[in-house]
Specification:
Order of helices and strands: HHHHH
Mean pLDDT: 82
Strand content: under 5%
Radius of gyration: 20 Å
Structural class: mainly alpha
Number of strands: 0
Distance between the termini: 65 Å
Helix content: 40-55%
Length: 140
């Protein structure tokens, strides 16, 4: 028997494929409405149990989602909410859901300094996030 030359791949080193799905703004809005309606089912810090994520996946019937996809999306939404919250409270920056930070030439330096310390905010220089207000009452 001859040995085959070349690289051998260890299956344990290959990362499993992530559950990936596209969420439209209307999908996100429906998901946020479901989260808001079921806030009472969350524990401290809005930690929902597995049964809740099953119901959230079912709620997204027009675009089927897995429990994991719903839970992952919630984590992303919460992180983004906190990014926007931080922008809104930054000195010298005025944020709106329609225009984002709406940075003009006279405030460009303030924005550049802010983004150096908060790189995740970069996308919101001139773009808002319409879900912020819907989340204000449910995210601590």
């Amino acid at each position: 028997m001859t040995k085959k030359k070349g690289k051998q791949h260890d299956a344990s080193l290959v990362e499993p494929k992530q559950d990936c799905c596209i969420w439209s703004e209307s999908d996100e809005a429906a998901f946020i409405r479901h989260m808001t309606a079921n806030k009472a089912k969350a524990g401290d810090g809005l930690n929902f149990d597995k049964a809740f994520w099953s119901s959230a996946a079912i709620e997204m019937a027009n675009q089927p989602r897995s429990q994991e996809a719903c839970q992952s999306k919630w984590v992303q939404i919460c992180k983004l909410y906190h990014v926007i919250e931080k922008i809104m409270h930054a000195s010298g920056i005025s944020y709106s859901p329609e225009l984002g930070a709406n940075i003009r030439p006279e405030s460009e330096t303030i924005w550049e300094d802010y983004v150096k310390n908060n790189p995740q905010a970069k996308a919101y220089k001139m773009k808002g996030w319409h879900h912020y207000e819907a989340l204000c009452d449910i995210i601590p």
